[in-house]
């Protein structure tokens, strides 16, 4: 595995967990309620998936020709991104105690 692949996997892991660790909507706007709604977190997760995909596409285009991908490639990448987000989800909704 080369450096750009390792960097991309680390970036994807961090990006997948950010929506669950940051309380601001799109990391800028403070929500009116005490915490973000799950729908906002899901929208941020999808947005981060496309941002990381764009970075991956740019890295691939710098190395050479960009390969055409079918729907299976994107389904596997989306599944991997959701798996990467699991630690942040566990921390936010399952592990952290409320009020303590």
Keywords, please?
elongated, 100 residues
Task: Summarize the SSE layout with pairings.
Elements: H1 3-21, H2 38-63, H3 71-84, H4 86-95
Give a description of the structure:
The protein is mainly alpha-helical and 100 residues long. It is built from four helices and no strands. The model has no long low-confidence stretch (mean pLDDT 90).
Concise description?
By secondary structure, the protein is mostly helical. The protein is 69% helix and 0% strand.
Summarize the biggest pleated sheet: none
Total count of helical runs of at least 4 residues: 4
- Structural class from helices and strands? mainly alpha
SSE succession: HHHH
Number of strands: 0
* Cα-atom radius of gyration: 16 Å
Poorly predicted ranges (pLDDT <50, ≥5 residues)? none
Task: Choose one word for the global shape.
Answer: elongated
State the end-to-end distance: 42 Å
Mean pLDDT: 90
Q: How large is the share of residues in beta strands?
A: under 5%
Q: In which range does the helix fraction lie?
A: 55-70%
